[in-house]
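Hi R.,

Here's the chain you asked about this morning:
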Amino acid sequence: MASKRTKLAYSTDSQAGNDSRAEKNEKRRPPGAAFAVQGNQPVRVWLERKGRGGKVVSVIKGVVGPKANKQALLKQLKSKLGTGGAVKGEDMEIQGDHRDRIVTLLQELGYPAKKAGG
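And the predicted structure, written out as tokens:
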């Protein structure tokens, strides 16, 4: 049976080989912090019409994290806005022009959100 320990020859990562620190940080997170804000880049919200038959879609870009967190955040936004939407690649799309409401909801959740585009 192989040992779980591996010999690390060289790494530029300061956290390499130290998985216990990441596990401790996960345990410290409060239960209500399902949507952790990562990074200092603001989340951008703008409108798109191209390729949608003239229909307006609010696009949210810049949310960092795994797809499961994005889907959970999108579900929460959709329920508060009463609209549909989807996660497409790295972006989240919400049907309709809801830029102002999305920005205020994201700021309430702790995301540095800004309106972008015309």
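Residues 29-34 have pLDDT under 50 and may be disordered.

Let me know if you need anything else.
M.
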